[in-house]
Automatic annotation (TrEMBL):
The keyword rRNA-binding is assigned to this record: no
Matches recorded under SUPFAM superfamilies: HIT-like (SSF54197)
Domain HIT: 28-139
PROSITE patterns: HIT_2
Motif Histidine triad motif, chain ranges: 124-128
Keyword presence, Hydrolase: yes
GO molecular function, one term: hydrolase activity
InterPro entries per UniProt: AP-4-A_phosphorylase (IPR052908), FHIT (IPR039383), HIT-like (IPR011146), HIT-like_sf (IPR036265)
Designated name of the protein: Hit family hydrolase, diadenosine tetraphosphate hydrolase
Alphabetized UniProt keyword annotations: Hydrolase, Nucleotide-binding
Amino acid sequence: MDQIFAPWRIDWVERDDDDGDGGDDGCPFCALPKADDDRESRVVARTDHSFVLLNNYPYNPGHAMVIPYRHTGSWGDLTDAELLDHAKLKARTLDALDAALDPDAANAGENLGGGPSGGSIDDHLHTHVVPRWGGDTNFMPVIGDTKVIVEALDDTYDRLREAFAEQSGADVDGENDAVFVEFDSPTEYDDDRSD
């Protein structure tokens, strides 16, 4: 039997399903940005319409998700302003990951539709952004069916938060607050997609 020591996961194992980890029908992506402590929730950056959350079960160090605040599983439900905001925040996330972790490349994508797509949360859109390095897939996951994460999530959070804070238009309040990112120019889109 393979054993991996991961003491930070005890919070997930011992969680109470009714302790605020759920929002719309128990959605963590609705609840986490509403929590009092962004650092504890792993919300690293925010905009008016979206936020960046570190993945608790990363494929690689720095595995983040860009998530709209609106609870929906359909891109067509988002306004033009929400769509543009999400895209701009994804670009800023890639920049922050480059500055903080200096990866060789990145993967970005979605698991849409649940079950067959591999996504565990299918009713709240989110884009995975995963830094990649040459050789980050080696014998451990291929032969040993084990993935080694080489940095603690708290350390990754600090590095990524600092990188967001150094970007133009960034505003940081308290030490446990996410960085608020304001884009250089406002969107020219309406918030109405009814036409």
